[in-house]
């Protein structure tokens, strides 16, 4: 037996773990107690990896659809046969409709930069990704404020604000451990969350805000801090633009007014603001909540202003501005955005009014980015141009404003992940060519023309620094050879690229050679890199750095047009957006539409990553699914009983747009006025293919969301997943639903009693 150092890709934290291997078989996954970045970090998903890699339903051979789209008729083909035909069909589509007719995406745990490189070289501006409402848009908005997305110094901070973010032992485990160690060392913890979540139970202050009212609460903090003189006056005077305008703006957001908007008592607004401002340095780690609302831009702008005026930018224990790694080829360089001509950039599919994620808006920061970071088109964490999925879907369905005919899907499931399940279904069913590379037959794969089997994380090498977010480059070894004919994503994209004339841009024959090119100034080979610890750190890292550099802006300025933190953004004003943060109530809430709220009196938010799952992964892994066999809607017991729902009863969550089926789960942690909706569910045990697609229209959260532009953030164009109105009504499991779930449970020896004692009863044939 030997032990390999490997990167766990069971979620996007990508912890470094140990794999025990014997005879090309992974026996177990263990914590790595000595890793300098993610020591002792392993969750239930990572530990369950052997159940994934050796799963009986893994895709192991290339498949070609030989029936109607979504019919489920497949023929096994070779990689070369599949790639030759894909290349031929792509060339024909490009010849007829242009390169912009090809779109593509990549999942959170596979390389974005390679998919973007393929599309940029091709000439398509229509790269889409889940990051358009998850971290990538945060980075884009923070660029308008301070020119970069900062990375929190968990190791030396004095105050942590978890804003709609809840790391736990089995969810974002490495971050949970960083925070746990900080709190054990004396750091204060503020939690902003409508639920009494895991972190809230350990917090010094817990603010239970109404979902979607985040900008108002942030502006209330700013009101207190500015009016009480608790801000860093030297930093504000020397390194910000627009403080007086911001001061005038926040005067209307008194704690009492903020209480009316947010449900947070005025005294808590004051207490939290004072603690954050006076017990620094402080950090506000990234969170999904402020990414996923139609007032996201204003929330993120206010959060950036809060960090800045309290002097927490690029200081020890604060929010570190970590530039590109100086000796490793960056993902920005790999993406090659500069090859995309202005003519093609102008064809990007976005909502007409929403320019913040456009190439045009991105280009406004090229000069400053080159001055500070040495590169134009800096796309740190996908901060840059992202096509709008709703507009791409419309082009697929209708051909307007031009046809999108082909889609390259790398390790993702866009049919379940983008807004409006019906529109996404109709869009992908309308394509001329849909190619997927994945490990399981998820709904998007079920609709595909070709499926190429993907290697799992223990079957390939890894090199990452979380999309150029920080300056420590982490490597992971390859544990075993891929099963069947599975290949890594680099092989998949390179083979397609070569067949459409991109040979010169993909000179490295293997993923390992590609990583060795990126590491050429660090190590002679990937083996040498891993033998030396698998880490290329730079001085800023608080654990590994021998000469940390802070307040770098004093030498370079910030990567904004003014060279300062822009509390007032002239660029935002140029494009017709509010140059200062403000609170604008979202359309579709109980506040903005009180008449409709009579029918839909509750507020919902779509939960981030519900344990034990990450995104759509894990629903077919017995050791995980036993813990949570069905999607669940979390409700406060008082609310549920008022509506007549027992714990474990089957219900439907309904919005004015659609409905979702789930189990009602009582929890004292829930807010009495708020419903927590499950995220990214599908039912692999149910009939795949048309018309069911493994429960797509029953349990996927995007059945609730509407891609109508009126519900979109006016600057970013993203939809809202948080704070809109809903109602909960009784529902019935269909016989097919009950029988398939019961059969699944029987095949595994039953489900866990920790579900609440209702799972066996609810899924038995007798109960159905």
Explain the overall architecture:
It is a single chain. The protein is α/β, with parallel strands linked by helices and 768 residues long. It is built from 31 helices and 26 strands. A six-stranded mixed sheet has the order 5-4-16-15-14-6, covered by helices on one side. The model is unreliable at 754-768 (pLDDT under 50).
Considering DSSP H and I runs of 4 or more, what fraction of the residues is helical?
A: 25-40%
Q: Give me the secondary-structure category.
A: alpha/beta
Q: What is Rg? A: 25 Å
Strand order across the largest sheet: 5-4-16-15-14-6
Shape: globular
Number of H- or I-type helical stretches: 31
Range of strand content: 5-15%
DSSP strand tally: 26
- Could you tell me how far the N terminus lies from the C terminus, measured between alpha carbons in angstroms? 48 Å
Main sheet makeup: 6 strands, mixed
List unreliable stretches of 5+ residues: 754-768
